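step: validate -> pass
step: tokenize input -> pass
step: predict -> running
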Amino acid sequence: MQVPWESDSPLRRWFASKVGLISPLWAKLRRREPASNPSMPAEDPSTRATRRLQQHLKLKEIEAAISVYQKARSSIPDWQPPERVYQELVQGVVNLANWENAVAILQEYLERSRKPDVRIRLKLAQILIRHRSRPARALEVLSVIPPGSLSESLESTRAELVRRAEAMIADGVLEIDEDPR
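step: predict -> pass
step: emit ->
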């Protein structure tokens, strides 16, 4: 007994006509190259992450910028946004009052920047004291600043932060070490 699709039956002819119409399209789809412009070089992941971060910051989409930053930091070795972009991200996170992310991003900025802005160090200490109840960690952050190296207004800010942190420690504020830095 012959199977209908193995013989020259009407069913086989019908099926072959349909497949015949589809197969050139299917072959074309399988051969298709990824959509790219051959005249433009491929964008490396580091540049793409920086560009996306800048776009989100420009649009004031801080949560999206944090997400791009965190994904890039975890997936691209030694990735670091440019200094100006880093500072915009820091400002956005602080304005958002997302203190947990703010502390992490400010600490990474201070660790990775060649010449970290001392105002960011003061801002980190302020957040650690006011919002995270981490006075000992704040004193560590402030201890890096040599006395007398700041302008008068920044020096008074530093002195006030040191005074507050020492007062919190004297009052017995227990600091839970969230991060072993």
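step: describe -> The chain has a mean pLDDT of 82.
step: cleanup -> pass
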